[in-house]
Design goal:
The protein is mainly beta. The protein has helices at about 5-10, 15-20, 110-120, 130; strands at about 35-40, 50-60, 65-75, 80-85, 90-95, 100-105, 135-140, 145-150, 155-165, 170-180, 185-200, 205-215, 220-230. It has a 13-stranded antiparallel sheet, covered by helices on one side.
C-alpha cells in the first residue's frame, strides 16, 4: 500500500524529506522504477593502466533495494557484464558473446553488502526512492550529510550521502565496502562523486559520476560514466 504524504513525512527525518523535494520528487510520485543508459569506462583491475570503454543500460527500483546493470565493452561488445541486486540476491557475472560465462561471483554476505552499497550510493539517479523505498533507514549525520542504510545482520550496509551547496547529492561514501566477495573481503573506503546536474523530467539528476577506492590514503578511480538517457 502506498504511503500518504503525511505518513511519509512522519517516517522520514525532515532533512531527508526536504532533500527529495529539492530534487523534484512529488508526494504523488507513482513510478516503480527508472531506466537509464550510460557510456563510460572502467579498469579491469585497480593497478591497470588502461581503461575499457562500455555502454550500459540500468534499471533501478524506487520501492525496493534492487537494480540491474548490463554493460557491453567496446570495441566489439564481445565481453559483457551484469551487476545486479534482485529479490535479495546479488549478481556479478562476466560473459563472452552474452552466453559463455567467464567469471561468476559466489553468493556471499560480502557480495550482498557491496551490491546494497551500490544501490544506496546511486539514490541520486533514482530520487523517488528517497520517499518511496520504505526499507531504507535514514539519519542525519551532520551538516550536509545524511546516512542511509539497509538490511540487517551480516549484510547490514550504510552509505553517507554528502550534499553540495545547492542541497543535492554530490557524493557517497562507505568506509568499509568489501573489495572481494570471498575471504579476504578487504573492507576498504569507497567513494562515489556526482556532477553535471540537470533538470530532467522535473527532477534534478546528475549526468556524470565516478567511483574510487581509497588505497593507502590515495584515491584510485576505477569507474567513470555519463548518463545518455533517463526515463
Amino acid at each position: 500500500m502506498t504511503e500518504t504524504n503525511a505518513e511519509c513525512r512522519a517516517r522520514l527525518p525532515a532533512a531527508v524529506y526536504d532533500l527529495a523535494m529539492r530534487l523534484g520528487v512529488t508526494p504523488e510520485e507513482t513510478r516503480t522504477s527508472v531506466k537509464l543508459t550510460q557510456t563510460g569506462r572502467m579498469k579491469r583491475s585497480l593497478d591497470a593502466q588502461s581503461w575499457m570503454s562500455f555502454s550500459a543500460t540500468q534499471t533501478i527500483s524506487t520501492r525496493d533495494c534492487a537494480f540491474d546493470w548490463l554493460a557491453k565493452f567496446r570495441p566489439f561488445g564481445v565481453i559483457s557484464a551484469r551487476d545486479a541486486l534482485e529479490r535479495g540476491v546479488g549478481h556479478l557475472d562476466i560473459m563472452a558473446l552474452g552466453l559463455i560465462p567467464i567469471a561468476r561471483t559466489a553468493q556471499t554476505a560480502a557480495l550482498m553488502r557491496g551490491e546494497l552499497m551500490r544501490y544506496l550510493a546511486e539514490l541520486a539517479w533514482v530520487p523517488s526512492a528517497i520517499l518511496r523505498n520504505t526499507t531504507l533507514r535514514w539519519r542525519v549525520d551532520g551538516p550536509e550529510r545524511l546516512a542511509v542504510s539497509a538490511s540487517e545482520g551480516e549484510t547490514a550496509s550504510e552509505v553517507i550521502l554528502n550534499l553540495d551547496t545547492d542541497g543535492r547529492i554530490a557524493g557517497a561514501f562507505a568506509p568499509d565496502r568489501p573489495r572481494s566477495a570471498t575471504p579476504p573481503e578487504l573492507p576498504t573506503p569507497w567513494r562515489g562523486r556526482f556532477s553535471d546536474y540537470r533538470l530532467h523530467r522535473d527532477l534534478w539528476l546528475p549526468f556524470a559520476g565516478e567511483v574510487a577506492w581509497e588505497i593507502a590514503g590515495r584515491g584510485v578511480t576505477y569507474w567513470q560514466a555519463r548518463v545518455e538517457s533517463w526515463e
